Amino acid sequence: MQDSRGTLECPLCKIDQASLAKGTEVYALKKVQTLVGCRRVILQESDFQYQMLVKWHSLSHHHDCWVPLDWLRVFEPQRARAYISKNTLPKEAYLEDQRKPEWFEVDRAIACRRKFGYDGLCDVLASFDNNADFEGYEFLVKWKGLDYCDATWEPYFTEGVPSAVSMLVQRHKNTVRSPMNIDVMVPENALYNYQVQGLQWILDNFKSRRSVILADEMGLGKTVQVVCFLNRIIKGSLTTSPALVIVPKSILLQWEKEFDRWAHDLSIVVYQGDKDSRKCIQAHELYSSKGKTLFDALVTSYEIVQIDKAVLKKIKWSTIVIDEAHRLKTLDCNLASCLKKFSSDFWLLLTGTPFQNNVLELFSLLHYIDPNEFSDPKDDPLFSPIESERGLTIDEKIARIPEILKPRMLRRLKANVLKDSMPTKKWVEVPCALTDSQRDLYINILEKNYSELNSAIQDGTKRSLNNVLMELRKCCNHPVDFASI
After folding, report:
1. By CB count within 10 A, which of 210, 235, 243, 398 is most buried?
2. Helices (runs of H) and strands (runs of E) counted in the chain
């Protein structure tokens, strides 16, 4: 390549063609999925090489390998340019590995197929009911910490796969076995007395099919009580249908951990992720080859239950649990309209704040668990405005609310149930002096807004100084809160 000034050399021509040819041969059958690391390797005293840690498509992280950046520039130019534009290549010896240890651990096996000469999935029970030879099969494995869309096919002798396959076979066997009444015992001293009482209260209402609200104050273990309740009714054969648990997306993993701790034997499916992940769950985790439900409880978020309502409403649920149920405080919210199409014998609402602003929010929750009795707020003067002709006085409303809530809601406070085990709250104030940079910035903020502060004092009228006060507060917290610093 030449121009008027002489000969120019293309950057790609500087690449060792032999190494490129070797790399092409090694990686030809693989497709790059993402980059999960970077390093700078010293080859000789005056020579070095940038290498990228590559996650290959359809292969687990056990197959990740280091690939020269030069190879990526040739065969994956867009991916290489995108990485370089977002990251500064180090000028010294450097190693970055973004992978997490749990990504190498098997979470569960969800399907199987023959290695050779067979298209499609195998019937798990037909293939392995008699402890058949597993060597001729490979299994679709979900890895811990990763979504279902990252599941990969692995041979039986991969570390962690044999135990996951045993659980897969057991889940399918449970769908054809007759229910067995097992006496489920909570470990002694594992629950507080008030939690045992709450568990029994939920269980009694479930047996009478009366939907209720558990409104314990935040921190009293509503999640634990619900998990123990679901474990009791499923393992105790009080129901043959699965449970649906709807929670905020931010605490999905917390619910999964509580199920693992308090109901380890239950088959729990966390229904989340992108469209591909949810399709994978629908294909492998919901039903057996005989059309029976494979799971005991499905945990999902408000958003996903509305997106995939067409799939989830087809299932007959024994119990539907809604955490943070104050999301239903309006009668016409999208979530409430969606869940009215679901079928369940028992509804359990969890909230630490049954109503925050007015009694209409309470009516929304009552309408949701008992739509026949609480069909319209206009029918009951309790929920009418005080100024209306049919409205009750405040004292009359306060007297009626406990009467309505007693059979339908259980609420305990920390001050009442943890008197002996909860230490008295102590407030310790530690004064902190401003640093030099904070003091200078604080003075500058005051001087800049001197006229506004002064006019507010002289006029004697209320003026909004929220912006100034917020700036001063940010300065006291840390000066780097200001973008200009």
Report:
1. 243
2. 18, 16
Tell me whether residue 163 is in a domain.
yes
Task: Determine, yes or no, domain membership for 72.
Answer: yes
Helix, strand, coil shares of the chain as percentages rounded to 5? Answer: 40, 20, 40
Q: Which residue, among 53, 124, 50, 125, has the nearest Cα to 88 in the 3D structure?
A: 50
Beta strands (DSSP E) in 178-327 are: 212-214, 243-247, 268-271, 297-301, 317-322
Structure tokens at 42: 């010293």
pTM: 0.77
Q: What's phi and psi for 52, nearest 5 deg?
A: -115, 140
Q: Give the best-scoring range by mean pLDDT among 147-151, 340-344, 432-436.
A: 147-151
Longest distance between any two alpha carbons in the chain, whole Å: 97
Q: Are residues 279 and 250 part of one domain?
A: yes
Do 296 and 360 reside in the same domain of the chain? yes
> Beta strand 212-214 with 152-155: parallel, antiparallel or unpaired?
unpaired
Place of tokens 């019937």: 123
Which H or E element spans position 235?
Answer: helix 222-235
Do 224 and 319 sit in the same domain of this protein?
yes
The model's pLDDT over 365-397, given as tens digits with 9 standing for 90+, comes to: 777 777 777 766 666 656 555 455 555 566 666
Residue 166: domain span: 102-174
Domain boundary among 39, 72, 98: 98
pLDDT of residue 11: 40
For residue 424, is it within any domain? no
Q: What's the pLDDT tens digit per position in 311-369? A: 999 999 999 999 988 777 777 778 888 888 888 889 999 988 877 666 677 777 777 77
